[in-house]
Amino acid sequence: MSWRLLGRETEVELLTRILDDTAAGAGGWHTLTGPPGIGKSRLLRDVVRLAARRDLTVAAREAFHLDQAAPLVTLAGALRDCTPATAAFGWLAHREPERFDPFGTLQRLRASLEQAARERPLLIVIDDAQWMDELSALAVRELIPALESSPVRWLLAHRPPSAQDREKPGHQLIRRLTRDGAAPIRLGVLDETTIARLSADVVGAEVDNTVVALAASCGGNPLRTGQLLRALVATGQLVVTDGVGSVVGGDLPSSFVDSVREVVDTLSEPAAWMLQAASVFGRPFGVEEAARLAGRPVAELYPLVREAMTDFLVEDGAGGLAFAHDAVRQAVYSLLPRTMREQLHREAAAITQDVGRPALEVADHQLRSGRSGAADAVRLVRSMAGMVARVAPGAAADVMVRALAAIGPDDPERPALVADTVGLLASAARLEEARKLGGEALGAGLAPETEARLLLGLAEACKHGGRNEMCVRYADEALGYAGLPAGLQARLHAVRAHALCYLGDLPAADESGARADTLGRAGGEYGAAVFGLSGRSLVAFTTGRLHESLDFARTATALVDEFGGEAAHRHPRIWLSAALIALDRFEEAEQVIRTGRRESDRTGATWTEPLWHHFRTALLFATGRLEEAAVEAESGLLVAEQHAAHALAMPLLGMLVRLAVVRGDIPAAQRHLDRIRRLDADGVTAVPEDVLWPEAVLLDATGSAQAAFTLLRGIYAGLPGRPALLVSDPAAAAALVRIARDTGHPDEAAAVVAAARRLAGRNPGSRSAAGAAAHADGVHRGDLGQVLRAVAGFRDAGRPLALAAALEDAALLGHSEARPAPPAPAPASLPELSPAERRVALEVAAGKTNIEVAETLYISRHTVDAHLRNIFAKLGLRRRAELAARVARESGPIT
Question: Residues 6 or more apart from 49 whose CB is under 8 A from it?
């Protein structure tokens, strides 16, 4: 079924330039889009051939419908079979770690890709990418920006989505890539001249107008054209006379399926049956599998396979068999009567289970085998719910939703099945579907404990998505049931504590955190105890009890160190770092963040990554390293968006607003603020210090002090009981006083001074708290002495931004000596770069991968990626080799 590539000269020229760019050391990604049969696969085969000529390593694979049932099969399969083979992916050939440690596998994949790209440029081609599995889609989404500075080129071909499959992981990935990057390469229909040339290739002779006119009825689609003409040849309705092909007779095929049926009918009966039976697999298959399904000995199948390979089957890269195009497989599949399809799927389920195929693939066949199979699928998926939810929650949820439709509304197992499905939907961040289905289940008479667990899943999903009010509502409803196990109550109180804190009900949050701690320890649910203690640490931080905040976080960390297990997945060092930063213990905070990040990487806790980025941004901001802070915040925002962690995106965007204002980039600050507003409009909530204060800073910087004051009225009123803004930003105290004073609100200005004094009194020994109190008082009363005391406090605390603000106020009050030191001279080499970027550039120039740079400099991999993007942009470079040459010219050889 192969012919010359015709009519794609423009696309081949573009892709050839891309391959040349890759061979020269550049990376990047592209999507190739067009309807089924338009020639994407044929074009990709030519691209792979051209890449091999350029000495690129090529990892190519076609995705199949049932890839979605096997975690990481799409990407890992491509890399396992790359040409030429490389030791970098050797570990993938011997086992399937993605089933047991998926996120650890993703980290190792990145390291392997960096290693392979260091050996030679790498081209990764995924055909029919819309069907890639969930974990592969996540991996590609993370790896494309991570490897942007390496010679790794991605080429993903896909068909436009239908209404039924647009939310599949592959389609979601393509939409994200299309939104964030270059326009897709679109394959259009072939023109009439090209169709005539194609017709001649298929027929093997020149063709007349009767053939061209009939071929034109296929709308310029090469697959449909070829299949139609082959059907006409097979049935004798297209004859070649004197070297010219013509269409004769009537009763021509009226559709693509009809043309496929015509060719199937030319096969022997055993070959046709084998072909139709194999169409139920929906993926490449082995001869042994096909023989078992067709009910024949393996030896008898080989001649049948040879017969079918003329028009239908090809060998796949792993030595099995596959249909030449999935559209052809679907057409063959449609020829089977329903009862026969169901029986074949029943047998295919047994075969796939026997050979150890993924549980979701087995369940898919069971669901297609009729009502009794649906019950088997439910039992299978529920028995493996823990593993499945970890690696492919979306695919598992799809199976369960289909099972719910199959078993009917009166099935006695339906309520429990709904509860499990809600949990899977929540794990896949499909919150609207989870809430809708959960609402149905909550009225279906579940047992109290089952319903409470369902509500816990909904509460945790809402917390992850920033829907804190709904989180509290679900948790309260669950806690209303009597007799729940202590561990379950502890988990409900823990998530409730964090949500209440973000909603501002601090006493209730602290009470819930305390109950989570007590009940969790009593019920052996140490993860809930740790999460409850973390909530109490957050409440203490928010109310300005910094030493208590530190103590709660240290106690939670000690529980993790003692008991491990689920407790370790709560990562209390996040809140420990926050308390340490507030107490000016920056070196210890830096070490805690490094340790915590390593633990998160080891446990695969991707949800923590935006938080680590946020608190390291806060640390860098506090210590005046603004450019590094901006890179850290941008990196965290990228991760938050990748994981749909909208609640965690809000504080990072707030930090970016403040950083942009400090750096004088008002348009960038406005863009970040617009993103905050869009999330807020979608119902994502955040604490006022994270979103209102940055907006007020921007308003004040643009001469809108009155608007800033109006926006901050709630913060002014709440400062006595909630001084969190003064804790996280000591310079904010004087700024709040200035805004209130300049807009004619002396009472509010005095209230800020009182709150700052109270905070300093609660936290003896905190130099920044004492400095904030002195600074606020000095600005309020015009007292130079107080402002100079603030200068001394901020200098001792090591907070240069707060120090600069105090020095500026001292100068305004007539203190002529209070001038900042002159800036340090620019470095001799790479003066365009910040110090942090220069350190990264030197390590990359020494030949290190991004992962190795991150380990050397004790920063996250995402931060290295972001630094490199900035370095390339500032220096006008696109390749690591160009950076190494630039460094060598300006700094000398790197050893």
Answer: none
Q: Which helix (H) or strand (E) holds 648?
A: helix 646-662
Sorted by sequence, the CB contacts under 8 Å of residue 745 that are 6+ apart come out as 709, 716
CA dihedral 294, 317, 166, 281 (to 10 degrees): 10
* Residue 87: CB atoms within 10 Å: 10
Q: Give, rounded to a whole angstrom, the gap between the first and last alpha carbons of the chain.
A: 54
For residue 675, with 0-12 CB atoms within 10 Å meaning exposed, 13-18 middle and 19 or more buried, which class applies?
middle
The burial of 690, by beta-carbon neighbours within 10 Å (0-12 exposed, 13-18 middle, 19 or more buried), is given as buried
Torsion of CA 837, 839, 844, 848, to 10 degrees: -130
Q: Provide CB contacts within 8 A for 397, sequence distance 6+.
A: 421, 424, 425, 427, 428, 430, 433
Residue 639's CB is within 10 A of a number of other CB atoms, namely 24
Give alpha helix (H) positions in 504-608. 506-522, 526-542, 546-563, 573-582, 586-603
Which residue from 165, 120, 126 is spatially nearest to 144, judged by alpha carbons?
A: 126
* Contact between residue 736 and residue 769 where contact means Cβ atoms under 8 Å apart: no
Cα 213 from Cα 347, distance rounded (Å): 44
* CA–CA separation, 709 and 396 (whole Å): 50
CB 235 within 8 A of CB 262: yes
Contacts of 646 (CB under 8 A, 6+ apart): 465, 466, 640, 679, 682, 684
Q: Edge-to-edge strands of the sheet including 28-33?
A: 57-62, 122-127, 152-158, 28-33, 185-186
Q: How many CB atoms lie within 10 A of CB 858?
A: 12
pLDDT digits (tens, 9 = 90+) for 305-359: 999 988 888 887 667 898 888 888 888 999 999 999 999 999 999 999 898 888 8
Residue with structure tokens 């297609």?
368
* CA atoms within 13 A of residue 306's CA, in its CB half-sphere: 4
With CA atoms as reference, report the closest residue to 279 among 320, 332, 347.
Answer: 332
Backbone torsions φ then ψ of 429, nearest 5 degrees: 65, 25
Task: Give the phi and the psi of residue 554 in degrees, each rounded to 5.
Answer: -65, -40
Tokens of 776: 């606020």
Confidence of residue 717 (pLDDT cuts 50, 70, 90): very high
Q: Radius of gyration (Cα) for the chain, nearest Å? A: 32
3-state SS, one letter per residue, for 141-200: HHHHHHCCCCCEEEEEEECCCCCCCCCCHHHHHHHHHHHHCCCCEECCCCCHHHHHHHHH
Q: Confirm if 614 and 633 have CB atoms less than 8 A apart.
A: yes
Model confidence at 97: pLDDT above 70: no
In which residue are the tokens 């962690």 written? 645
Q: Collect contacts of 618-622 with beta carbons under 8 A, ≥24 apart.
A: 618/578, 618/581, 618/655, 618/728, 619/577, 619/581, 619/586, 619/589, 619/590, 619/593, 621/655, 621/658, 621/659, 621/801, 622/581, 622/586, 622/799, 622/801
Cα distance between residue 655 and residue 630, in whole Å: 8
- Among 583, 539, 535, 586, which Cα is nearest to 556's? 535
Residue 271, token pair as written in the block? 């070959």
For helices 861-875 and 880-891, give the axis angle rounded to 10 degrees: 70
SS3 letters for 388-423?
Answer: HHHHCHHHHHHHHHHHHHHHCCCCCCHHHHHHHHHH
Can you tell me the distance from the alpha carbon of 451 to that of 488, in angstroms, rounded to the nearest whole number?
A: 12
Report pLDDT digits (tens) over 423-463. 778 767 677 788 788 877 776 667 888 889 888 888 887 88
Confidence of residue 569 (pLDDT cuts 50, 70, 90): confident
CA 814 from chain centre, in angstroms, equals 53
- Rounded to whole angstroms, the Cα distance separating 245 from 241 reads 6
Instruction: Report the alpha-carbon distance of residue 589 to residue 574 in Å, rounded.
Output: 10
Half-sphere exposure (Cβ direction) of 444: Cα atoms closer than 13 Å: 20
In which residue are the tokens 């970040």 written? 672
Can you name the residues that pair with 315 across neighbouring β-strands? 321
